[in-house]
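User: Some background: our group keeps a shared notebook of sequences we're curious about, and every so often someone picks one and asks for a predicted structure to add to the entry. Today it's my turn. The entry only has the sequence so far, pasted here. Could you supply the structure so I can complete it?
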Amino acid sequence: MSCRFTTRVAPHCPCFDHYGAMMLAMEKVRAPGYRCPGRVLQDVQDRRLLHRWEAGHAMFRAHHAKALGMRCAPACVLPYTRGTGIDEEMFFAWFETCECDVIVAHHPRVKILME
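Assistant: Of course. Here's the predicted structure to add to the notebook entry:
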């Protein structure tokens, strides 16, 4: 079974489809063999996008992951902190329990923390 989502935006749609993009990202993560993706978000970014990224991840996790043979970790929504931009202590607490084999994140600090 496969889920197919597109990044092409319809001409009558002036906004990017954040929800659909999350579904596409999860499908792309599956292609090379990852089976337990995690999602890291900043709360300020997620609020600005009306929680569309978080909703896309939650919907994929609830309705598509099992059918595709995946187990998605709950999203990690981090509060903004001065300096690094993310709450590193909260990230590490989530990371230790999520059992992810890949993480999808926007914030460059997440990659640095994992190295």
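Suggested note for the entry: The helical segments are 18-30, 43-48, 52-63, 88-98, 108-114. Residues 18-114 form one domain.
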